[in-house]
Design brief:
With 279 residues, this protein is mainly alpha-helical. The protein folds into 2 domains: 77 residues, Arc Repressor Mutant, subunit A (Orthogonal Bundle); 172 residues, Up-down Bundle (Four Helix Bundle (Hemerythrin (Met), subunit A)). Helices cover 59% and strands 4% of the residues. Pfam families: FCD, GntR.
Amino acid sequence: MATLGAGKTASIGIRKQKRADLVAEELKRLITQRNLKPGDKLPQEVKLQETFGVSKGTIREALKSLEVQGLVSVSTGPAGGGTIVEVPLDRTFQLMQNYLFFKDIGIADVYTVRRLLEPELAAGAVPHLTEDDFRALEHTIDLCDPASTKAAAPLDQRQEDLSFHDILAAANPNPMLRFCCELINEMIRQLVVFGNETSSKDHAKFGASNVKFHRQILDAARARDAETVRELMSTHMEDCTHHVTRMKGRVHGRLVLDSEMPRRNRPLIDEHDDSGGDA
């Protein structure tokens, strides 16, 4: 039978934790030691009870803790237990926003980071883009182009603006860079707002500018010209910063609700106007 909290870490205060928290930590060690991957299963609840010498309630509380953290999916019943899952971006974003809620984050802060990261993200994606990726990028542009017969409603257009960047992110092999850019995109979807002083004409200009840059970036990417993609994305981010600043965009400081978590590819919110914002 395993001893909870055994080792040096336990001797310096970990024993003050609840038993369920100790079990959760031991399960994390187990995941690491066994190199478990998404889809792999943890031992059944009965086996875990025997291993750690705790009650069914303690095991379930520990598994619930890991489920809240996004590490496992829990099923109940005689064969119940935890299955390893990949931590979803939405959950990570929610935790990040819990932290940022108490910080003074402005729109300039968001776009400073975008200007630094997006050009490298896009350039790094170029060698890895597939024909399916190119078709998906073209599709997002068509949905945002007022001249296209496929053009979507204004709010959906802003959603597709960001989808363009998500497609590039998904193709980039650098997991840290991809993660940072996807989190910023999610922040823009859910937290950037414009006031009622922003006219539909301003939104239209912003959207048209996004379409222009996205087409140029797509053409350069198809030509496998990573350096041109980097330069175009840098100029695009400068242009986005100009538009968002001119339109008085701001970060709406709020906590993201669990009920919002499954919603992906959400457009920018406009507090008073029906047209969205940025890419």
